[in-house]
Specification:
This protein folds into three domains: 3-158, Alpha-D-Glucose-1,6-Bisphosphate, subunit A, domain 3 (Alpha-D-Glucose-1,6-Bisphosphate, Chain A, domain 3); 163-369, Alpha-D-Glucose-1,6-Bisphosphate, subunit A, domain 3 (Alpha-D-Glucose-1,6-Bisphosphate, Chain A, domain 3); 378-456, Alpha-D-phosphohexomutase, C-terminal domain (TATA-Binding Protein, 2-Layer Sandwich). It is α/β, with parallel strands linked by helices. The strands form five sheets. It has a six-stranded mixed β-sheet, sandwiched between helices. A five-stranded mixed β-sheet has the order 8-7-9-10-11, sandwiched between helices. Strands 16-18-17 form a three-stranded antiparallel β-sheet. The longest helix has 21 residues, at 436-456. It has helices at 22-38, 60-75, 87-96, 129-138, 160-172, 197-203, 230-239, 266-279, 295-304, 315-325, 348-362, 366-369, 389-394, 397-410, 436-456; strands at residues 11-14, 50-55, 78-84, 101-105, 114-120, 154-156, 183-187, 207-211, 243-247, 254-257, 263-264, 287-290, 308-311, 329-331, 337-339, 378-384, 415-420, 426-432. 39% of the residues lie in helices and 19% in strands.
Length: 458
């Protein structure tokens, strides 16, 4: 298999095709279990290691869960099954249960016909590249089975959702009034947040109208959630709500809607959270965004006197940069926001609560808190390519020449970025600048150039 089986956010693919098959899930469970045993992860003198497994609401989750459970048991690793729970909930419980690893069966914001596997370390953080590499290598080994007396056991954890709800509430650090006086519309994307997020906000005294909370196994992320906020924006206006909150299918992303129906993305939320901490002298280290963070937001950080750094796309890279530089707040425009003094990974509910607590504390609306943010127009064009082609084409002489022409056309007032997707066989072409028509023209021009070179195959 090799290391390429793991992308920037775990393993992902179309259900029914490798690697999203019962056979692969069985082998993955055995390979991961064997590596964890060899590393002595979570083992004690009288107890073998355990792995915690959760999933989102996709129909394929049950099938893949059963196969993973068998693979881990065959390797001699106990399994704790927590059922449907958001990805950040798995990260939190992996740490609190002192498990050898946590594993989420989810394809995040993708449609229901995709699924994936994402691992967490005993600290509730993304599994290291080194361990992922060992698991990938172990996939090439024959599937076996430990002696019957050493097989792993499986058990279900019925208290998982309740424990995660209490954790989320504790991160807000509100007084007894909580969120009283706020009316929220909450869009759970028919995903893993359905039975968690509305309870968190209600138990903190907010008035909650919930939408997209009726999962049927196939409607996850369908015309709802953080990637499709139009319905939420309309609902906020219709309900006269203070804020709309949208999650993706596995709950690690959050975007918000202000009372005017305007989308407040992850870049905006990152600025609101960081600026509030900076104002009270509580911001540690630089704020970390990504190469995709909007130039207008970066300029807002500069005006506020807040140190800002860019990392490659992917919350694991944002996390690594924060840890290296002693920071605690970072994120992406997609809604992955990290508050490392509250949670070990991106958590949609924690992000929303941090923002709501700021609103309550200063008595200002979300629209007011983001009024000074101006986004430069940008265009993102995805070019579908054969596997392995993206990296080659990014270094192609003609493509590089086209990028130079585009950058010269903006005369220092814009940005051009080409990057390979970490989860799909695509090259993403992004252009950003002050003139919308110019931005869109150059994005499509560069994408056409990439397609042309791909067709020539040289």
């Amino acid at each position: 298999m090799g290391e390429s089986i793991f992308g920037t956010d775990g393993i992902r693919g179309r259900v029914g095709s490798e690697p999203m098959t019962p056979d692969f899930a069985l082998r993955l469970g055995f390979a991961a279990g064997s590596v964890l045993l060899a590393e002595n992860y979570g083992a004690t003198d009288d107890m073998q290691p355990c792995v915690l497994i959760g999933k989102d609401t996709r129909l394929s989750g049950d099938m893949l869960e059963s196969a993973l459970e068998s693979g881990f048991a065959a390797a001699g690793v106990d399994v704790l099954l927590v059922g449907t729970l958001p990805t950040p909930g798995i990260a939190h419980l992996t740490r609190t249960y002192r498990a050898a690893a946590g594993l989420v069966i989810s394809a995040s914001h993708n449609p229901h016909y995709d699924n994936g596997f994402k691992f967490f370390s005993p600290r509730g953080q993304k599994l290291s590249d080194a361990i992922e590499s060992r698991i990938a290598a172990a996939l090439d080994q024959p599937l076996a089975c430990v002696p019957s007396g050493k097989l792993g056991r499986a058990s279900r954890v019925d208290s998982a959702a309740g424990r995660y709800v209490e954790f989320c509430k504790s991160t807000a650090r509100l007084d007894l009034a909580g969120l009283r006086g706020l009316k929220l519309v909450v869009d759970c994307a028919n995903g893993a947040m359905c039975h968690v997020a509305p309870s968190v906000f209600r138990e903190l005294n907010a008035e909650v109208k919930e939408i997209a909370t009726e999962p049927d196994g196939q409607n996850i992320n369908r015309e709802c959630g953080s990637t499709n906020p139009e319905g939420l924006a309309s609902a906020v206006i219709d309900e006269g709500a203070d804020v709309g909150i949208a999650f993706d299918g596995d709950g690690d992303r959050c975007i918000m809607i202000d009372h005017c129906g305007r989308v407040i993305d992850g870049d905006d939320l990152l600025y609101v959270i960081a600026a509030a901490r900076h104002a009270r002298g509580a911001l540690r280290g630089p704020v970390v965004g990504t190469v995709m963070t909007n130039l207008g937001v970066v300029q807002a950080f500069e005006r506020a006197g807040i140190d800002f750094e860019r990392a490659p796309v992917g919350d694991r890279y944002v996390f690594e940069r924060l840890e290296a530089n002693g920071g605690e707040v970072g994120g992406e425009a997609s809604g992955h926001v990290l508050c490392l003094d509250r949670a070990t990974t991106g958590d949609g509910v924690v992000t929303a609560l941090q923002t709501l607590a700021i609103m309550i504390g200063c008595g200002r609306s979300l629209a007011d808190l983001t009024a000074g943010l101006v986004h430069h127009p940008n265009a993102l064009v995805n070019v579908e390519l054969a596997p392995g082609e993206a990296d080659r084409l990014m270094q192609h002489p003609q493509v590089l020449a086209d990028i130079e022409r585009a950058e010269a056309a903006f005369e220092g007032a814009g940005r051009v970025l080409l990057r390979a997707s970490g989860t799909e066989h695509k090259l993403r072409v992004m252009v950003e600048g002050p003139d919308q028509d110019k931005v869109y023209w150059w994005a499509n021009e560069l994408a056409a150039g990439v397609r042309g070179q791909a067709a020539h195959g040289v």
